[in-house]
Design brief:
By secondary structure, this protein is mainly α. It contains 11 helices and no strands.
Length: 211
């Protein structure tokens, strides 16, 4: 009886070693690697693209303020006096950062109500009452916290929006000349909405104090 030939060493399947580390499939990376790869896929805006989006203040003001985000777009605290001292949150509306504008517009009132447990309006007559002194202190604390948060995050939020707009231009394969016009239109400032917001807010504040 003829025995079947024994497979040569080259045809013998390799035995799996229990000490061998697990291998990921070629087209499937671990989560941390996929996140890093996705972050690297976002191209940094060029100097001309940032100038088109930010406007005339790019060279003298925002190039220096946004320098920490060029190598790594992760959040780094910086400072923006205009965002901190402007009538909150008018700067975010002025720079077309509408989601941060809504956040900084709504959160101080919500935080004040949560911390004090009251929605009592601070009119001029109410502020003169001794029992409401602690409400004035809490209101000042919320205002200062909002100012610090606004000033510390403004540059990063503006850079993130400029970077997202530039990425959209790349994905849509917009021609350079048209892309620059689009970045100027999407970026820049919104003077009309900001003026209306400040005027209306001042009117309401005067009416509340007078009441």
């Amino acid at each position: 009886m003829t025995m079947p030939p024994t497979p040569s060493g080259g045809d013998t399947p390799p035995e799996s070693s229990p000490d061998r580390p697990p291998e990921f499939p070629q087209n499937e990376l671990p989560r941390w690697a996929r996140q890093q790869q996705q972050q690297r896929s976002f191209e940094q805006p060029s100097d001309a693209e940032m100038a088109a989006f930010i406007g005339p203040k790019w060279e003298k003001v925002y190039r220096r303020k946004m320098a920490p985000f060029v190598e790594d777009a992760s959040f780094v605290p910086t400072w923006n006096w205009s965002a901190a001292l402007a009538f909150p949150p008018a700067w975010f509306l002025y720079r077309k950062l509408y989601l941060p504008f809504a956040f900084f517009f709504l959160m101080p009132g919500i935080a004040f109500r949560v911390l004090t447990g009251t929605d009592k309006p601070l009119t001029m007559a109410a502020m003169q009452q001794p029992e409401n002194e602690w409400l004035l202190v809490m209101n000042a604390a919320v205002f200062v916290s909002t100012m610090l948060a606004s000033g510390g995050t403004a540059n990063w939020l503006l850079y993130r929006r400029a970077r997202a707009a530039n990425q959209l231009v790349i994905q849509q394969r917009v021609p350079p000349a048209e892309a620059e016009r689009w970045l100027r239109r999407v970026g820049g400032v919104n003077r009309l909405a900001t003026s209306l917001f400040v005027a209306l807010s001042l009117m309401l504040a005067v009416a509340a104090i007078g009441g």
